């Protein structure tokens, strides 16, 4: 599975933890589009780039992280075909895939800890879309 990561300065530390975690698995090919420091950065630039690439099917899934996750999710969800899910716990990460077929996981680097975030990443990437009655609803999004 091809995964693209992006963050702003508020999410860079959590992004780096997610990247290291994913690179430890042979199941994922990881691309990191920054940022790479805690210097102030504009989250829309990264969110636009990641969302466009996932929408064009250049990557299977994306992960975006800013301070709260709010800004990144707002930008990413402007793109047709993107279902960016701002998740704060394991339940929302699981349900974002199971019922909503989310293709971008968004998290807040200042909201959740690395341990929980890594569990959320694993759950998000391994949970299949249930389809069925949820397919009709997902089609209604666009």
Describe the structure in brief.
The chain is α/β, with parallel strands linked by helices and 142 residues long. The protein has a single domain, classed as Ribose 5-phosphate Isomerase B, Chain: A.
Describe the 3D structure.
It is a single chain. The protein has one domain (2-141): Ribose 5-phosphate Isomerase B, Chain: A. It has 6 helices and 5 strands; from the N terminus they run βαβαβαβαβαα. It has helices at 12-23, 43-55, 70-76, 90-98, 114-126, 133-141; strands at residues 2-7, 29-32, 61-66, 84-86, 104-108. The protein has a 5-stranded parallel β-sheet, with helices on both faces.
Largest sheet: 5 strands, parallel
The main sheet orders its strands as 2-1-3-5-4
Radius of gyration: 14 Å
CATH architectural arrangement = 3-Layer(aba) Sandwich
CATH superfamily: Sugar-phosphate isomerase, RpiB/LacA/LacB
Oligomerization: single chain
Q: How far is it from the N-terminal to the C-terminal residue, by CA?
A: 24 Å
Helix/strand/pairing class, anyone? alpha/beta
- CATH domain topology: Ribose 5-phosphate Isomerase B, Chain: A
Please mark out the parts with pLDDT under 50 across 5 or more consecutive residues, or reply none: none
Helical fraction equals 40-55%
Which geometry do the CA atoms define? globular
Assigned CATH class: Alpha Beta
Number of domain modules: 1
């Amino acid at each position: 599975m091809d995964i693209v990561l992006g963050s702003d300065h508020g999410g860079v530390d959590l992004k780096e933890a997610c990247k290291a975690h994913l690179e430890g698995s042979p199941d994922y090919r990881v691309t990191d589009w920054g940022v790479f420091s805690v210097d102030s950065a504009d989250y829309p630039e990264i969110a636009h780039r990641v969302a466009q690439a996932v929408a064009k099917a250049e990557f299977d899934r994306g992960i975006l992280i800013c301070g709260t996750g709010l800004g990144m999710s707002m930008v990413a969800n402007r793109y047709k075909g993107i279902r960016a899910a701002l998740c704060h716990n394991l339940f929302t990460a699981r349900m974002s895939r199971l019922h909503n077929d989310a293709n971008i996981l968004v998290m807040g680097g200042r909201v959740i800890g690395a341990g929980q975030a890594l569990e959320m990443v694993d759950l998000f990437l391994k949970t299949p879309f249930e389809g069925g009655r949820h397919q009709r609803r997902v089609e209604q999004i666009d």
